[in-house]
What does this fold into?
Amino acid sequence: MSSSSRPPLACTVLTARPADVDRAFYDLNRDMDPNFVHVFLDKLQRYAAKPDRALFLAEYQGRIIAFATIIDQAPAPDESSESTIRLLETCACGTGLMVLPEFRRRGVAATLVQQWENWALENGLQGIWVVTRQMADWYHRCFSYYIHGVTIRRGVKKNSTGQKITL
Ligand SMILES: CC(C)(COP(=O)(O)OP(=O)(O)OC[C@H]1O[C@@H](n2cnc3c(N)ncnc32)[C@H](O)[C@@H]1OP(=O)(O)O)[C@@H](O)C(=O)NCCC(=O)NCCS
It folds into this structure.
């Protein structure tokens, strides 16, 4: 990861447990569509509770300022080829990433994307894929994800030293 536009923010990242969800929701929901805050809360609760997924929270000065979610298996996008389906079965899926506006351009998303990658490796998965409508170029430019049809993944292989290898 190269440098962001402003000095990096010294945030800490926690892997959320169910007890963390209320304050995460309190701090983050203002940036969500008011019509869908209940969906957001439900998502936070599921990702904090279930063993096949994770909710990462970035905390700064006692406030939650960002979140990222990941799951070990997600259905491949409609009309994926057989080879794409097989490929995605070996990868975790990043399903959410948001940094509150006033904390952007300070490396917080980069820290959370690194958490995704660590989690995928720890869970024996070979990469990460993300479905995104507008941010494909951003993932590609900033994190070396490559575009795979309508999906993106970053190849991460686990070897005996746990080193990441970008395909
Ligand atoms: C996209 C988003 C997550 C970036 O978060 P962030 O904490 O500002 O990102 P970082 O500071 O870690 O920056 C990572 C890289 O992205 C670049 N970047 C960040 N925001 C950018 C923007 N709006 N346009 C272009 N580049 C951007 C940074 O310059 C940095 O690259 P660099 O290291 O080469 O300078 C944040 O703007 C956001 O929450 N947006 C709304 C939700 C969203 O789009 N989520 C992702 C889509 S799934």
Notes: The longest helix spans residues 108-122. The beta strands are 12-15, 53-60, 63-71, 91-99, 127-131, 146-148, 151-155. Residues 15 and 56 are 5 Å apart (CA to CA). The first strand starts at residue 12 and ends at 15.
